[in-house]
Amino acid sequence: MGTLHISKVAVACASFEALKKRQAGRIADGIVPLTTRFRPKRADELVGGSLYWIIKHRIAARQTILGFAEGEERRTIIRLDPALVPVQARPKRAHQGWRYLANDDAPADLASEGDGLAALPPRLVVELSSLALI
């Protein structure tokens, strides 16, 4: 069985930069805590996978899921790695709740070895990705 991932809408984030700024403000003890009302049913399978962020109807970035913790008032905290990794943009409609994503269906990271994108300025790579040109 391969790695399992989930996708989530980045509510009120119009860009990768806006999400990155939001995440930077939430870092605590080396993690980004994401509080949610419902624990994903397949939470144990998600540890080591990624949460893929949907921005403007496109999967645009991911963060590695480090684990889960219990929060206040029966809420769940998803413990995310602070590194926000841009991925090759892929159309994805907004949704409520969790949508599981098999490893084979997950978009590749941007600026991976050998794709030539590493030589471009990061801002340009994100912009081209948001336009689904790369």
List the helices and strands and how they pair.
Elements: E1 4-9, H1 16-24, E2 32-36, H2 43-46, E3 50-55, E4 58-70, E5 76-80, E6 85-91, E7 99-102, H3 122-130
Parallel strand pairs: 1-3
Antiparallel strand pairs: 1-7, 2-5, 3-4, 4-5, 4-6
**Whole-number count of domains:** 1
User: Termini, distance in Å?
Assistant: 29 Å
Total DSSP E strands? 7
Helix content: 10-25%
Point out poorly predicted stretches. none
Multimerization state: single chain
Q: What is the structural class?
A: alpha+beta
How much of the sequence is in beta strands?
25-35%
Largest sheet: 7 strands, mixed
Total DSSP helices: 3
Instruction: Report the average pLDDT across residues.
Output: 87
Walkthrough of the structure:
Strands 1, 2, 3, 4, 5, 6 and 7 form a seven-stranded mixed β-sheet that branches. The mean pLDDT is 87. The longest helix has 9 residues, at 16-24. A hairpin with a 2-residue loop joins strand 3 and strand 4 (58-70). The chain starts with a strand and ends with a helix. The chain has helices spanning 16-24, 43-46, 122-130; strands at 4-9, 32-36, 50-55, 58-70, 76-80, 85-91, 99-102. The chain has one domain. The chain is built from three helices and seven strands. Helix content is 16%, strand content 34%. By secondary structure, it is of the alpha+beta class. The chain is globular. It holds the Pfam family DUF1489. This is DUF1489 domain-containing protein.
